[in-house]
Amino acid sequence: QVQVAESGGGLVQAGGSLRLSCIGSGLDFANYAVGWFRQPPGKEREAVGCISWTGDSDVYEDSVKGRFAVSRDKTINNGYLTMNRLETEDTAKYYCGAGGACETFEHWGQGTRVTVSS
């Protein structure tokens, strides 16, 4: 059974940091691109960033460039989203997706909530 699961969300003050984790099981996670998305309250889901299956390229949505970083550890089937200098606008439910490339995702987690207080 394929499972993708996020963890690490929580409440943080503006200016603070959090690191989200994504773990995959039941699939060859090391050979999947890992993408991060978020859905703010009352808004549609949006892309945040993605790291290729090789780990040597990454892309980011403009509003998080320079603050967020995607990474992965293939040895333990984990992907990470490190979020620095958090802003209240970053409040959202964050989702991890696994796919053949950063343009398509086949497997999704249930999400983890991040709340940034002012």
Would you kindly provide a brief summary of this structure?
The chain has 118 residues and is an all-beta fold.
Written description of the protein model:
Helix content is about 0%, strand content about 50%. The protein has strands spanning about 5, 10-15, 20-25, 35-40, 45-50, 60, 70-75, 80-85, 90-100, 105-110, 110-115. β7 and β8 form a beta hairpin. The chain is mostly beta strands and about 120 residues long. The radius of gyration is 13 Å and the shape is globular.
| Strand residue content | over 45%
Helix content: under 10%
Overall, the morphology is globular
- DSSP summary, beta strand count: 11
> What order do the helices and strands follow?
EEEEEEEEEEE
- Classification by helices and strands: mainly beta
**Average pLDDT, all residues:** 96
Rg: 13 Å
Distance between the termini: 40 Å
Low-confidence stretches: none
Tally of separate helices: 0
Q: Let me know the largest β-sheet.
A: 7 strands, mixed
List keywords for this structure.
118 residues; 11 strands; single chain; mainly beta; globular
Note the topology.
Elements lengths: L2 E5 L2 E4 L4 E8 L7 E7 L6 E6 L6 E3 L7 E6 L4 E6 L8 E8 L7 E2 L3 E6 L1
